[in-house]
Amino acid sequence: MSQPxxxxxxxxxxxxxxxxxxxxxVALLSLLxxxxxIGTVLQQSxxxxxxLVKFGPFWTQIYQFLGLYDVYASAWFVIIMLFxxxxxxxxxxxxxxxxxxxxxxxxxxxxxxxxxxMRHSTxxxxxxxxxxAARYLxxxxxxxxxxxxxxxxxxxxxxxxxxxxxxxxFAHAALIVICLGGLIDSNLLLKAGMLTGRIVPDNNALxxxxxxxxxxxxxxxxxxxxxxxxxxxxxxxxVFLNADKGMLVQDLPFEVKLKKFHIDFYNTGMPxxxxxxxxxxxxxxxxxxxxTIRVNHPLTLHGITIYQASxxxxxxxxxxxxxxxxxxxxxxVTLKATSMRDFPLTIxxxxxxxxxxxxxxxxxxxxxxxxxxxxxxxxxxxNDVRAVTQENKRFTNIGPSIIYRIRDNAxxxxxxxxxxxxxxxxxxxxxxxxxxxxxxxxxxxLRIPMDKNGKxxxxxxMRELLNNESARQKVVAQATLGAPADIRxxxxxxxxNTLSAFAQGGYLALDRLITQNIPAxxxxxxxxxxxxxxxxxxxxxxxxxxxxxxxxxxxxxxARQRFLLHSMDAYTGLTEYPAPMLMQLDGYxxxxxxxxxxxxxxxxxxxxxxxxxxVLGTIFMFYIREKRAWxxxxxxxxxxxxxxxxxxxxxxxxxxxxxxxxxQLAEDLNHDRPN
Length: 675
Hints:
Layout: H1 14-19, H2 22-41, H3 48-65, H4 75-104, H5 112-116, E1 120-123, H6 130-139, E2 143-148, E3 154-160, H7 164-184, H8 188-196, E4 216-217, E5 224-231, E6 235-243, E7 246-265, E8 271-282, E9 288-294, E10 299-301, E11 304-313, E12 317-324, E13 333-338, E14 342-347, E15 350-360, E16 364-366, E17 395-397, E18 401-407, E19 413-419, E20 423-425, E21 428-436, E22 444-449, H9 457-466, H10 469-480, H11 488-517, H12 520-548, H13 558-575, E23 581-589, E24 592-600, H14 603-623, E25 627-634, E26 637-644, H15 648-669
Main location: membrane
Protein name: Cytochrome c biogenesis protein ResB
Membrane topology: Multi-pass membrane protein
């Protein structure tokens, strides 16, 4: 009968060798490194709208599918860490037993031939006893073992720096411990609950009280990381967690109230420091404590750490000037509103909804480049503290702004961004409002020029005048006075038609007038003529506006000419403005909101332990050198040999020194003996 084949040991099986190989572990570490870079560069766990604005609808869905918005909790990141734990664990299983045997071993079975073949090996000329040799090695920091062999020879085997092997063990154990800490904090239980249907993210509810029971996590949840915004004077006892395509609510064992939010700024307007005065009440005991937290100075209660993460608008009171664009009246109405809320809006017989977003009291932009070199002008408005350190940039606070939307009955909305203060572009200042119809689009800017009194009154008054037919006739008559008598009538007719067309639709209407009434071969020539005529008539219109509305005189100078040109551009823009009214922020009372991040991270202690092990492993591996020494006494000869697993260069210096010292020690002890 044939003998049954012996089973292959576990550590010799191909799958074991592959999983425990260094190549596999290095590949996993490289993937984790790339993922960590992505998680550092790309802001994590932000609202979906933020990513939609940055990347557009196509790439937003791709990145979301890949889990790049929550890298450290994504399934593929967790799987990589699991395999790294398995790989490193198998590597330790394979290597720790021989390492431990090596640490304990003195290699007392070394033969004379093997000792003689070592790179650092020699015969001592002088006689010395094994006891003296062992004591010398002990003085030099070696631990030794003396072995009397059957052939009558005596071997003194010594070693130093055997703890070097522990460096390998500690370093690999550190990877396991750190990854286990990461796995514990990666919401594995949460993901398991979502897979089984026990936990269901909600993507419809707006308030914590509206979340379904299966979307609410208990206080006993061992690990979570969530965010909540609290307005001054308000409190919260839950945090919100991003999960898949919805949200979850995490109950807290305490209630947090924001008493006051503090913020300091650099001279440029960039935030320098922000802090929250909190009042925390324990739900079970009713005990209340007051603490102030700020960036890098969190508060920990019940194993939950409260971080100062951000700040935002908490529902500020706003005041607007509003002009009905269907009515040329220069006098605005006053609207009062609150940011982060919706209001009904009725204009004529049409119903709209006015939806206000966050109010921003400070907007900091790089003003080191001229406006024509800044893409979309204010598109890159900055609120990021990291931007302060960027070189060759000049950051300037350009004042408060508000984002709002006007939505019609069909549900279609246009978004607007309005700045309260006039902003300098090139040589002049403008009141600006941006418009866009989708989050993926960039703002298109309406720029209303500031007059010599620092207001928009002159432009609005001129707009009212242009829409008054009798006033236009008066302006044309005034402009015609300077024309030669023989062409005055024709000039008056042309000027009236030009101004009337411009009043109806700005430059666009004037272009249509030229296209429809002038032969194609003469349009380019006549276009310049009409624009020169328009500028002259508009100059007269500006004079009439200043006089009619008692706005003061404005001497003919370069600043006035630029204002007139900018006004003509703005008037054209208003004719195409996609809103029933123009709103200009005119005042506010700011209410701030503190963004708090709350985390329960039991795996953090494991990460700290792993970090300590990693430091110890590094020290043991790179700063503790394993060295071995042998003295073999046989047939009246003494063979001395040394070896090291690394740093052979050190032995090139140490070995001759030890040899010389042993020779000298032998000579000193045997000086009275005859040769």
